[in-house]
Amino acid sequence: MNARNRIADAWLAMRTEFTVEAVHLGATVHAEGETLVATWPEAGHQATSATLGTVGERLVLTETATLRVPHGFPDELLTRFGNRAAVVGRLRDHLSMVERVAGVPLLARPEALRVVRA
User: Fold this and answer.
1) How far is residue 112's CA from residue 6's CA, in Å, rounded to a whole number?
2) Burial track 68-98 (b if 16+ CB lie within 10 A, e otherwise)
3) Are the CB atoms for 78 and 118 separated by under 8 Å?
4) Where is 39: in which H helix or E strand?
5) Which of 53, 76, 78, 118 would bridge 35 by S-S if both were Cys, CB 3.0 to 4.6 A apart?
6) pLDDT per residue as tens digits for the range 11-27
7) What is the pLDDT of residues 44-77, one digit of tens each?
8) The pTM is what?
9) Which phi and psi angles does 9 have, rounded to 5°?
């Protein structure tokens, strides 16, 4: 098997594992073009979503926290109150394990948590 086929196979396996593991962790998953989006129901004041997209041949897992806050809540506090979700950490750990088994480095380093108002 050539390197190009190994990358394609690993990429497909990673997308499949993202879907299976996110659902296992309680998310709903849908596709937006080439990007997969997993959304966890709101827990307290924050809903969490994770996207698995591509940059070149690398896969990027991005987490977004959607917070419900009062009007006029300062942006600096909004960023401080957005917390990384444990489910996304478990999802990243699982995908890292799949990456090690495949022997193809696909996952880019974690991006900063994106926090948006609801």
Assistant:
1) 29
2) eeeeeeeeeeeeeebeebebbeebbebbeeb
3) no
4) strand 35-43
5) 53
6) 888 999 999 999 999 99
7) 578 889 999 988 878 899 999 888 877 888 888 7
8) 0.80
9) -65, -45
Residue carrying the six token digits 């948006």: 116
What is the side-by-side order of every strand in the sheet holding 35-43?
A: 28-32, 35-43, 46-55, 58-67, 114-117
At residue 93, the pLDDT reads 92
Half-sphere exposure of 118 (CA within 13 A, CB side): 13
The helix/strand/coil state of 93 is: helix
Question: Alpha helix locations (H) across 26-117?
Answer: 75-81, 86-102
